[in-house]
Amino acid sequence: MWDSIKDSTLYQLMAPFVPGQSLFLFHLGSALLISIFVYFYFSHREARARPDGVSKGMFGYLFDRDIWLHKSARQDYLYFVVNSLVYSGIIAQFYISGSVFYGFFDFGLSKLFGAPETALFEASFSTVIIYTFVAALAMDLAIYITHYLQHKIAALWHFHSVHHSAEVLTVMTVYRQHPVDLFLTGTVVVALTQLGHAGYTYLTLSQPSVHGIMGVNSVIFVFFILGYNLRHSHIWLSYPPWLSYILISPAQHQTHHSIEAKHFDRNFGFMFAFWDWMFGTLYVPRGYEKLEFGISKEEPNPYGSVTELYLTPFKRAWHELASLVIGSAATPSSDKKSDQANVAPKLHQPKEPVEKQSGLL
To answer: Where are the domains of the chain?
Structure first.
């Protein structure tokens, strides 16, 4: 048990050397190259159509001290280290095994459709490629579903608000997620990917294999090197309108973190934007938008310490659940200034996606 905790903790802390982690040096390098391109693009735009930081020069824009040394960013750095032990080292050990989900779905398929005697499809390179995409789609749909629920169910929102309490975005903000958040998402990801696994086995009577790069699903690896790390950053990179209906751009995810009402409950997708398009939650920016991040304008980050990042969501979720049980509105013992953090984001009626007027950026 202790060896497992130690290995899982070290695996997380060694993220720059792990291809499956967003902090892998190759992924960071590709993000840096794209950021340089973005800087030169905006440096030739008029002042009102470009980020303020561009005027600081390339190094000042990419490594803005006001962002990288912000109190919120320093919280992220410490939280990453602590959560490597608390979540990756300990809590993640209690995941339901993928084999449990696989066994359930395999049994269900056989009961519903009968046990196949011959393969409906022969395993081949084509089925490997198809399964690679199916596995990526299953993971992405699982993340969309849980992300949607984390915004719509008040008790879950309190845990998810830890991620949204970041006042600035850096590559470390992706790790600013409460263990309850991570555990829920991870469980649903395992369940849906194992459904795909069971389906493949049922159709081909063979175990699936994924086309990978450095041991990572090729679809996910390519997504990482095409600027994934910029989604949690101040570097504005948006895609042409047609592509923004297929893939979530860094700019689209940045608007998801915005405290502007028009951005609430938009762009839940991880890689693919068509889930948002299908369910009416897609937002495509109209060119560069100056954004503010956090939970609310009044109090963007109500968490004063890493300890509060862990414990306060439990307190608020308890009040939320207690109010449902006793049938009255139990109010958390906090001042009015913190009320915005104690409730789920305001729900909005689905709107038509907003299309961008210009090209790549």
So the answer is: 2-278
